[in-house]
Amino acid sequence: MDKTKTTELDNVVVRFSGDSGDGMQLTGTLFSNLSAILGNEISTFPDFPSEIRAPLGTIGGVSGFQVHLGSSKIYTPGDDADVLVAMNPAALKVNSKGIKKGGIIIYDVDSFEKSDFEKAGFTTENPFEELSISETIQLIPAPLSTLTQASLDGMGFDNKTVLRSKNMFALGVVCWLFNRPIEQAIHFLQNKFGKKPTILEANIKVLTDGFNYGNNLHLTISTYFVEKSLETPKGNYTSISGNKATAWGLIAASQKAGLQLFLGSYPITPATDIMHELAARKDMGVKVVQAEDEIAGITTSIGAAFAGSLAATNTSGPGLALKSEAIGLAVMAELPLVIIDVMRGGPSTGLPTKTEQTDLLQALYGRNGESPAVVIAAGTPDDCFHYAFMASKIALEHMTPVILLSDAFIGNGTSLWKLPTLAELPEIKPNYVKSGMEGCKVTARDEVSKVRYWSSPGMEGFEHRNGGLEKDYATGCISTDPLNHEKMVETRRAKIDYISNFLPELKIEGNENAETLVIGWGGTHGHLMSAVNNLNKNGKEIALAHFNYINPLPKNTVEVVQKYKKVVVCELNSGQFATFLRSKVPGVEFLQYNKVQGQPFTVAELENNFIELMK
Amino acid sequence: METTQIKPIQYTAKDFKSDQYVRWCPGCGDYAVLNSLQKVMADLGVAPHNTAVISGIGCSSRLPYYTSSYGFHTIHGRGAAIATGVKVANPELTVWQITGDGDCLAIGGNHFIHSVRRNVDINVLLFNNQIYGLTKGQYSPTTKKGFVTKSSPFGTVERPFRPAELTLGARGTFFGRLLDVDLKNAQATMMAAAKHKGTSVVECLVNCVIFNDGAHDWLAERETRTDRMIFLEQDKPMIFGKERNKGLIVEGFNLKVVTIGENGITEADLLVHDATCQDTTLHFKLAMMEGPEFPIAMGVIRAVEDETYDQALETQIATIQAKSKIKTFDELIATCEQWEM
User: Fold this and answer.
1) How confident is the model over A313-337, as pLDDT tens digits?
2) How far apart are CA A437 and CA A306, in angstroms?
3) Residue B90 in contact with partner chain A when CB distance is under 8 A
4) Residues of chain A neighbouring B51 (CB-CB closer than 8 A)
C-alpha cells in the first residue's frame, strides 16, 4: 500500500470555524499547543461573535480560531489560511475570502444540506461555486457528524455528547494532515476532562477515529510537516493569551514588591478574562472585588492603593471613559494605580469583540485639568506579562496611575511565552517613608524625581490627609494659591517626564539604515514586524520603530525618528499616535497608514502599502 | 517576678483633632457631629494610625481634614467604594465614611446600596441636612416635596428618599439615627455603629444654617424634644416623653402611641426594642415614624449580625491557601502546560 507523501512547510495557517457551540476554540487551542510541544513557533487568534448563541448555522453565530505554526520565528496568527475546517456553510461563507489559493477546505458534508445553505444565506446548492472558490481550492468533504455518530455507536452516549464530539473528529483529521501525534492531544484532553470521564472517553475515541479516517482514506495527496523552530531561544515555554499574561504580570509584580494585589473590576468584553484569572488566584492572596460598576471598579482600587496595596483595575474603552474622573483623583492624590484598557472597537458600545487602537488619545488626554499619567502599550500576547509588570513597577516607584493599553487582538490571541522566574525579574522598590520622617507632609517628595513618599494607614506617625483638592507644595494643606497651583501642575508633569530616564531606548528593527521608517505602537507589532522582515528579505530596505512606552516617550525618540527620509505611522485608528508624535517630534512629516475595521492589519496589505510608499 | 502589663492607651478627643482650622459656617450642625465623632474615636481606643476617614464631596466631606488619622477626601459620590477598597485591602483598620444626603444618595446612590448589601465593615455617617450646601442651596434627594430651593423656585416635584428605607431595602445590618445637638445620644449611637461588624449606617440629622435652617426644628426644639423623639435602647420598653409616660404599642399592623396609665395601659404593654431581630418589619415601622402623630425614632434601630464582606473574603483566601500547593509565583508558573524548546 503506497503511503501519502509528506511535504515540508516553513509555516502554515489553519483556521477552525463553526457555530459558537461547535467547540472551535478548544479544537484550535489543542492543535496549537501540541504543535508547540513539537517545537513549532505558534501564534493564535480567536475570532468570536458578540452573541453568546446566535441561531445555529447563521453567519452571526460563526466562531473561529486561527493557528499559525512556524519552523522559524512567527509574529502573527497569519493573514490567509492554508487549511480551513468548516463545520457548516455559514463558516465557509464567513471565511471564504481568507483562504490561500491552493489551500484546503475540510468540511462537514452532513451540515452542507439545503436547509444549511439557506440559513447561511446561499441561494444555490453549490456554495463553492457561488463563492467562486471551487477551482482554486482543494475540497475535502468528510461526513463528520455521521462518522462521529458511528464512532460512538453502541457506547451508550447521549445524543448531545455525540454531537458535541465532532470537533474532535475534525481535530483528528487535521492531526493526520499535519503529522501531529495524537498521543499528545490525548494527554491534553486528559488534563481538561479528567473529572468528566464520559466526555473524556468520547473525545478520545472520536479523535482517534478521525486520525485513522484521514490515514486510511488518504484524504489528500500529501500530508504536511512543519519542522521544529531552531530560532527560538532555548528554554521552557507555554502558550499564553495576552489577558492571562497581563494578570500574571500583576501577580509577579505584587510578589516582587512584597505587596498584596488588589483588583477592582467590572465585567466588560474583551477585558474580563483578566478578572477571571485573578479571581482564581486566592491561593496567591489576590483580592478581587467585582464592583457594582466601572467607577467602583477603579475607586475600590484607589482605596486599596491608599491602604498600601498594589492596586489595579481592568476595563475596555467605555469603561475607561467612566473611570476618567477617578484617574484624575489618582493623579492628584499621587497614588500608585495600574489601569488596564483592553481596547475594542468604538465609539460607544461599538464593536465589543473586535480589536482597535482607538483609545490612545483618551488614555493620554481624557481627563479634566492638566492630568498627566503614564501610558504604556503591550505589543504581543506574551509581552503583556512584561508590560503589566513594568506598569506596576512604574506606578509603585513613581507614585502615579499607569494606563496599560492592550487590545482584543493580543488580549485574546496567544503566543509562545518563555517561562520566567521571579528571581530574574527586576526589583520593585516603592518610595516609602523612612523612619525618622514621622510627621512629614503628604506632599513630601524626592526633589529630583518629584516622587512623593508613600505611607499608608497602619503606619504610626505618618497620619495624613490626602484628597482631590489642590495641595500646598510645602505643607500639603489644601490651597487655592495661584502660583502654588501652577507649581503643583508643573511638579506632576515633571514627575511623569522624569520616568523617561528609566525607560529603554527606542530600538530600530529591520534595516536600520533604510530611508523609510515604519512606526507602530502596541498590539500591531507582529504584523508590522512580519511585513518589514518580508520586504527586507526581498531586498526592499525598510526600518521599524515600535513603541511600547508612549507617555513619556523613550528619550531618544526625536533623534531616532528625525534620521529617516520617509516616516509612516501605522495604527488601527485614524491617526492618534501620528497626532501625538507631531506634537512631540519637530521637523518630521509623519505619513499615515490607518485601518479602522475592527480587524488587525494583514501583513500583505502592509507590504503593498510600504512598496507603494517606497516608490 | 515582674510581669509586663500592656495597658490600653487611653486616647482623648484631642488625639483625633488635626491642626486644620475648621471651615464650616458658624452654627453648622457638622461641628457637633465632628466633636462627637472625635470623642467616640477616643473612647473606642483604636489608634489614630489605624483609623481611616474617607469622604466624598460636599460640606460634610471636608471632615477628614479635621481629624488626626489617615484621611482621604475623594470625589463626589465615590466614598463608599473607596472606603470598601480601604477596608478590604486592610481589614485591620477602623474605617469611617463621611457623606451627605447628596453625596450618598444622589451621585453615590449605587455605591451606597452596594456597600450596604455587601455588608463591608465600615461606619457610615450620613449627614442629612436635606439640602445641597456646598453648591449653595439646591434640593437634594431627601428634600421634602414642595420645598422651595434655588433649583426648585416653585417647590420640588420630587418624592424624597428616606435613608432608613433605602438602607433596610439594601439588606442593611445596621441603621441608627442621631441629632447633631443631642450629644449624649449621638455619641452612644456612633459608638454602637463603630462596634457593629458590617456596614453601619447612621443618619445624622444636621442643620444647615444657611440654606435650610431649621429643617429639623420640629425635632430639635429643646423644650419639646423629649416628646417628639424616642431614643431606642436594646431590650428596653419603648418609652418617651418629658414625663416618661408615653409609649409605643402595636395595634393591628401599625404602631400606636399610648399613654401609660390611660385606658389601663401599663409599661408591660409596651413594645420592647430588639435591634437584633433579623425580621425588618418592626424596624421599618420604627424608622418610618413621622411627627406629629409619632415621635421620631433615634438611636440604634437595627443591628443584626451577619458575615461581613471583608471577613468573608479573608476566610475564603485562608481556606484556599491552606489547601493549595501554589504559594509563590514560581510555583504558579510550574502549573503551566509547558515544553522545552
Assistant:
1) 999 999 999 999 999 999 999 999 9
2) 19
3) yes
4) 457
Q: Can you tell me the mean pLDDT for A223-249? A: 93
Distance CA A442, CA A477 (A): 9
Residues of chain A with CATH 3.40.50.920: 508-614
Q: Is the bond into B64 cis (omega within 30 degrees of 0)?
A: no
| Chain pair A-B, CB pairs under 8 angstroms | 198
Facing A36 at nearest CB: one of B82, B92, B339: B339
For B248-274, b where at least 16 C-beta lie within 10 A, e where not — what string?
Answer: beeeeeebebbebeeeebeeeebbebb
The fold of A508-614 is Rossmann fold (3.40.50)
Minimum distance, in Å, between the CA of residue B91 and any CA atom of chain A: 10
A108 φ, ψ (degrees, to nearest 5): -85, 100
* pLDDT tens digits along B287-301: 999 999 999 999 999
Per-residue model confidence (pLDDT) at position A1: 40
State the DSSP string of A196-208: -HHHHHHHHHHHH
Give the percent of chain A with pLDDT over 70.
99
CA atoms of A496 and A547, how far apart (whole Å):
17
Tell me how many degrees the CA angle A317-A519-A367 measures, rounded to the nearest 5: 30
- The domain segmentation of chain B, as residue ranges, is 13-236+273-314, 238-272
How far is residue A332 from each of residues A233, A470, B117, measured CA to CA in Å? 44, 7, 30
* Residue A292 with chain B: CB contacts under 8 Å: 81, 110-111, 114
pTM: 0.95
Decide if A299 and B85 are in contact by the 8 Å CB cutoff.
yes
- Least CB–CB distance from B84: residue in A255, A300, A308: A300
B13-236+273-314: CATH topology is Rossmann fold (3.40.50)
Inter-chain contact B86–A235, Cβ cutoff 8 Å? no
**Contact call for residues A103 and A83 (beta carbons, < 8 A):** yes
- Asked if residue B225 has pLDDT above 90, the reply is yes
Average pLDDT, chain A: 95
In chain A, which segments carry CATH 3.40.920.10?
A: 5-226
Report the topology of domain A240-424. Answer: Rossmann fold (3.40.50)
Whether B253 and chain A come into contact, CB under 8 Å, resolves to: no
Cell numbers linked to B177: 439615627
Number of DSSP helices (H) and strands (E) in chain A, helices first: 21, 23
Q: Shortest Cα distance from B9 to chain A (angstroms)? A: 14
CATH number of A5-226: 3.40.920.10
Task: Give B282→chain A minimum CA distance, Å.
Answer: 30
Residues of chain A with CATH 3.40.50.970: 240-424
Q: Residue B86 is nearest to which of A238, A287, A306, comparing CB atoms?
A: A306
Residue B7 pLDDT grade (very low, low, confident, very high; cuts 50, 70, 90): low
Helices (H), B170-240: 183-195, 217-220, 225-228
Contact B82 A302 (CB under 8 A): yes
pLDDT digits (tens, 9 = 90+) for B99-154: 999 999 999 999 999 999 999 999 999 999 999 999 999 999 999 999 999 999 99
Neighbouring residues of A600: CB distance < 8 A, sequence distance ≥ 6: A45, A76, A355, A409, A523, A524, A527, A572
pLDDT (mean) for A98-109: 93
Q: Which residues of A102-138 are buried (b: 16+ CB within 10 A; e: fewer)?
A: ebbbbbbebbbeeebbebbebeeeebbebbebeeebe
* pLDDT of A469 above 80: yes
Contacts of A433 (CB under 8 A, 6+ apart): A440, A444, A453, A454, A455, A459, A462
Give the cell for residue B167: 438602607
* Helix (H) or strand (E) run with residue A258 in it: none
pLDDT digits (tens, 9 = 90+) for A496-548: 999 999 999 999 999 999 999 999 999 999 999 999 999 999 999 999 999 99
Q: Output the pLDDT for position A69.
A: 95
